[in-house]
Write a structure and sequence with these properties.
heterotrimer; A mainly alpha (238); B alpha/beta (608); C alpha+beta (248); A: 238 residues; 3 helical TM bundles of succinate and fumarate reductases; C: 248 residues; alpha+beta; Ubiquitin-like (UB roll); Fumarate Reductase Iron-sulfur Protein, Chain B, domain 2; 2 domains; 15% strand; elongated
Chain lengths: 238, 608, 248
């Protein structure tokens, strides 16, 4: 105990700089990812305007190698972010227990929101890998391929009469909400920690933005399923 | 069972409020080893509750122009109704300005003078010049000729306690908190230190030192209603009294603060009136100018408190949901929202928290409430207690006798650090020159005595009296018989009741097991000491057949300098059930007795 | 007749061999203006003389009586029972060492904090008894007083998940304390020196931003503002140390 303390006192001082850089990197990677996410959703939402605009945009991204560079870069940032932000998460069983107990005792809004962030982080991590896997195995990314993907039924069809369980639509709705929740509140937390703004007002602004993005995403999903169901628009029913 | 641990040091400081901590700093800086004992972590001491400020004649603010230690001295002596030690008062008034500046250098964020014309809510218009800008400013307080109360918003006590404690931390002085001294160890000549009970686990420990300082604060809790914290039980004075050798001085001099807020009796700072607040009666009439045309609400505390009770007795008290007894109103609405919620924020919060009243918009109920014990362990001007070598006392626990029979607002906080400095230096000087052989037989006997007492309390060997019943009865007796207005008859009855209670307090038996950090046992141990202290107050008041400062006898309404220009010394002889009173003359070498300029003697007949 | 209230109280005295943590119910009659200070003292005086808890000033200025009241850290002395449901719980603050029942050892924790952050004015100036005080703008004095108002009750530490999980995290109160000295022109420490005491994960970079401290501070200190201020200041200091010559 004494030894550990002494080591802490003499050695730990030089860790301050590392702690700062790690903390900065976590915040910066978070900001990059939420920026990416919002941009991504705006791009996807162009499908609501027209499939031509969507295609033109995605062709443009390919042509200037933005996709080829951007996707690996984003994957890298995600991995960095998982490692950096993960160190904050209650990982040990003891920590989980304490977190759950305190959050339930206090019924404190922001603490519960953070617990939600930890849970959505897990979800987003897994779902993002699945999402990346499917888009990369169905390259290139165009309105028609995206619509087909959204409308496809996944590994095994479950059908009750005329109803077919829409695996991918459900997957994307959950992914969308998890991603936006984690990102939206993540940005809130970054701004709270560094920022000059009063957090309650800022919280409402960010919640507003998040709702708008989620609505855009849902509209885009709906449009994709419409396209998929209508061969005239280039769709192909599974 | 015997003492679990024995600690040795050069200077043992009992208490960790401002006076105690400040003296510990002096001793530590002299290179002595110091241990501080405290009931609570030092920053929770009752000194933090001092809201208003500290009197020092800096003369920076326009309304304090031309102020100097001599004027401060005269105010203090008049305030004390010539009961104070003038030599001490002079020394204090001369030292306190540099104390304020030293606190500043340690980090107290004193409010500063800002240049420009100002109009105060009280109607006073002044102009502060550029030349004084940035120096420490001051506000008005009761009973003073100049504005000299230095402050930080209304958290002066809080900031000063925190800052002084930073120095204690810096010097790495060990603080044993949650420890209660339960008796002094002495051989009849010299004080050895104390037996202390660890409030974390109930163990008894021994602390031995060349010098022991008592800085345990006041004894307000002998009254049922007091503005004091619940830890202000006069324990330091009680253990000194129990030695039979050390007298308590002037215990009958108890201050009642005009503005305690019922029903919880939390203090509304004098700063509220200093900043221009009024007192109103049930007809919303500002009555103080009728009684005190010159000083109005800002006469000394004893006078304002008496005038308030007098006014209530005349039928002008308010009945309201806030209190079962009649009260009056404090009105600071005219100071404005901004002033109230910046400069008087702590009391605004208190009024809001406890009565749901926003003082910027509504009236605050107030009633005179026990506030300060001017008396205490009688010491000489070096802080050395009478009767035992190596024992010192300072702050509210002591009768250094800066305050005589009435203390001026802002003089107590100033006294703590100044006495801590002046007497702390003397303690260091004494300790450096002292050698001490501890007779271990004496130490062991002291521990054995306390152990046996604790065992008896737990087993109920002496009786089964309920400690809480005794405390409640003591509190109400003091309220009914030894309050603002006193009469011989009421005091006689009060003394008789207290004597009865004292006998019962020796027969206390616990209802609980007394194991570990047991709160019932903690109170039971000190209960007889508290009743003894209460008896010193009541009996001293009964025997003093005059009125002086806060001690007001309706049957002897005049100050009597011919017979009573003297200080009460109360001793407690072993086995007695009353204190033995002795008196010593009060010298008035610098300012002979005269007119205070306010109060009953000056104001002429009262308009009814 | 007032309302009947039931207080479920955490009970455990580590000094009594064999004692086990449990919740114990006490029934009381409520009356006008009853605070938890009054209620708990009533319990001790009339129902159970063994109940351990801490009160000092009973006026919300000393910070002794913080406890979890219905799960939230508050000062018991200024909590009116009428603002609580008729059945509620009281528990000791987490993080701090338990002394018994509702009493925890904040004293030692905070003393360690002072030593660790060297929370005192560092100056090379020697005090001159005969000199005037150094001038200061009144605005700065008022700014220092804001963070200085902290009463060290421990509420912000108890409600902080990070402080609950990590032993070495100094909590909002610690960062706020350093903030007070950074603002103070009398403290001559350079930013790099503050960085040594607060610029790591035990200090400012350990905060996750859950803001329970900001929501539950009984003194209503602007903790979000103060924590962000220290974080930015320390980020600047740390970057300068890492990349000498950098301009910020």
């Amino acid at each position: 105990m004494e030894l550990a303390k002494n080591l802490n006192a003499s050695v730990n001082k030089s860790f301050g700089k590392t702690d700062l850089l790690v903390d900065l990197a976590q915040s910066i990677s978070g900001v990059i990812l939420i920026g990416f996410l919002w941009m991504h959703m705006l791009f996807v939402a162009t499908i609501v305007v027209s499939p031509e605009l969507f295609d033109a945009l995605s062709e443009g991204l390919d042509k200037y190698y933005l996709a080829q560079f951007g996707i690996p870069a984003t994957i890298l940032v995600i991995i960095i972010h998982i490692f950096l932000a993960g160190r904050r998460a209650p990982l040990r069983l003891r920590d989980l227990r304490i977190t759950y107990r305190m959050a339930s005792l206090m019924k404190h809004y922001d603490t519960w929101v953070w617990v939600g962030q930890v849970i959505t982080a897990l979800g987003v991590g897994i779902m993002a890998s699945m999402h990346l896997w499917t888009i990369l195995t169905h390259w290139p990314l165009r309105a028609a391929t995206s619509a087909a993907r959204v409308a496809s039924n996944g590994p095994a069809d479950i059908t009750w009469g005329s109803f077919t369980f829409p695996y991918y639509v459900v997957f994307y709705v959950i992914f969308l909400i998890f991603g936006e929740y984690h990102g939206g509140f993540g940005l809130y937390r970054i701004l709270v920690k560094w920022g000059w703004w009063e957090r309650h007002t800022m919280g409402w602004v960010l919640k507003g933005i998040t709702v708008i993005i989620v609505v855009l995403g849902l509209t885009a999903l709906y449009t994709f399923t419409k396209i998929a169901a209508n061969p005239a628009l280039g769709g192909a029913i599974h | 069972m015997s003492a679990k641990n024995t600690h040795y040091c050069d200077v043992l400081v009992i208490g960790a409020g401002l006076a105690a901590n400040r003296s510990a700093i002096e001793a530590a800086q002299a290179g002595l080893s110091v241990i501080i004992l405290s009931l609570v972590p030092p920053r929770r001491s009752h000194s933090t509750a001092a809201q208003g400020g500290m009197q020092a004649s800096l003369g920076n603010v326009a309304m304090g122009k031309g102020d100097n230690p001599q004027i401060h001295f005269e105010d203090t002596v008049k305030g004390s109704d010539w009961g104070c030690d003038q030599e001490v008062a002079k020394m204090f008034c001369e030292t306190v300005p540099s104390m304020i500046r030293q606190l500043d250098s340690w980090g107290v964020p004193w409010n500063r003078v800002t240049a420009g014309k100002k109009k105060y809510a009280s109607g006073i218009e002044t102009e502060d010049t550029k030349e004084k800008e940035g120096l420490i400013t001051a506000r008005d307080f009761g009973g003073t000729a100049k504005w000299r109360c230095c402050y930080t918003s209304d958290g002066t006590g809080h900031t000063v306690v925190f800052v002084v404690d930073t120095v204690v931390c810096k010097l790495n002085i060990p603080v044993h908190d949650r420890v209660e001294a339960i008796s002094l160890i002495h051989d009849g000549v010299t004080c050895y230190g104390c037996v202390a009970r660890d409030l974390r686990n109930g163990e008894l420990n021994v602390y031995l030192a060349k010098s022991t300082i008592i800085g345990t604060g006041g004894a307000g809790r002998i009254y049922a209603a007091s503005t004091n914290a619940v830890i202000c039980e006069g324990t330091g004075g009680a253990i000194a009294l129990k030695t039979g050798l050390v007298p308590l001085g002037n215990m009958e001099a108890i201050q009642f603060h005009p503005t305690g807020m019922p029903p919880v009796y939390i203090l509304m700072t004098e700063g509220a009136r200093g900043d221009g607040g009024y007192l109103l009666d049930k007809n919303m009439h500002r009555f103080m100018p009728d009684y005190e045309p010159k000083k109005k609400e800002l006469a000394s505390r004893d006078v304002v408190s008496r005038r308030m009770v007098q006014h209530i007795r005349a039928g002008f008290g308010v009945d309201s949901k806030y209190s079962t007894q009649q009260h009056l109103w404090l009105d600071i609405r005219h100071l404005g929202q901004k002033w109230v919620w910046t400069n008087l924020r702590e009391i605004a919060n208190i009024a809001m928290n406890f009565n749901g009243v926003d003082p910027a918009k509504e009236l605050v109920p107030v009633i005179p409430t026990q506030h300060y014990t001017m008396g205490g362990v009688r010491t000489n001007k070096d802080g050395a207690a009478y009767g035992l070598k190596g024992l010192f006392a300072m702050g509210e626990a002591a009768c250094w006798d800066l305050h005589g029979f009435n203390r001026l607002g802002g003089n107590s906080l100033a006294e703590t650090v100044t006495a801590g400095y002046i007497c702390g230096k003397q303690v260091a000087k004494y300790t450096l020159g002292a050698t001490q052989d501890f007779n271990m037989k004496v130490v062991e006997d002291a521990v054995k005595f306390e152990e046996e007492n604790i065992n008896n309390l737990i087993s109920g060997k002496n009786g089964k009296e309920n400690v809480y019943d005794i405390r409640t009865a003591m509190g109400t007796t003091m309220m009914e018989h030894v309050h603002i207005f006193r009469t011989g008859k009421a005091l006689e009855q009060g003394v008789a009741k207290l004597q009865e209670l004292y006998k019962r307090s020796l027969k206390i038996g616990l209802r609980s097991s007394g194991q570990g950090a047991n709160p019932e046992l903690a109170l039971a141990i000190k209960m007889p000491g508290q009743v003894r202290t209460a008896l010193c107050v009541a009996y001293g008041a009964l025997m003093r057949t005059e009125s002086r400062g806060s001690h007001f006898r309706e049957d002897f309404p005049k100050r009597d300098d011919a017979n009573w220009l003297k200080r009460t010394l109360a001793y407690w002889k072993e086995g007695a059930d009353l204190p033995t009173l002795d008196y010593e003359p009060v010298a008035t070498p610098l300012l002979p007795p005269g007119d205070r300029g306010y109060g009953e003697a000056s104001a002429g007949p009262v308009k009814k | 007749m007032g309302r009947q209230i039931t207080i479920s109280c955490f009970r455990f005295n580590p000094n009594i061999p064999g004692d086990k943590p449990r919740m114990q119910d006490y029934k009381l009659e409520e009356y006008e203006g009853m605070t938890l200070f009054i209620a708990l003292n009533d319990i001790r005086e009339k129902l159970d003389p063994t109940l351990v808890f801490d009160f000092v000033c009973r006026a919300a200025i000393c910070g002794s009586c913080a406890m979890l009241i219905n799960g939230r850290p508050r000062l018991a002395c200024k909590t009116m029972t009428r603002n609580l449901p008729s059945h509620f719980t009281v528990m000791p603050l987490p993080v701090f060492k338990l002394i018994g029942d509702l009493s925890v050892d904040t004293g030692k924790w905070f003393r360690d904090l002072q030593m660790r952050t060297e929370a005192w004015i560092h100056t090379t100036k020697k005090f001159d008894f005969n000199a005037l005080e150094v001038r200061m703008d009144n605005k700065i004095a008022e700014e220092i007083y804001e963070p200085e108002r902290c009463v060290e009750c421990g509420c912000c530490v108890a409600c902080c998940i990070t402080a609950n999980i990590r032993d070495d995290f100094m909590g909002a109160t610690g960062i706020n304390r350093v903030c007070r000295f950074i603002i103070d022109p009398r403290d001559e420490r350079a930013d790099a020196e503050y960085f040594e005491v607060v610029g790591d994960e035990g200090g400012t970079f350990g905060c996750v931003g859950l803001m329970a401290c900001d929501d539950m501070c009984p003194m209503e200190l602007p903790l979000q503002e103060n924590l962000a201020f220290v974080r930015r200041k320390m980020a600047g200091a740390g970057l300068k140390l890492t990349f000498p010559g950098i301009k910020l």
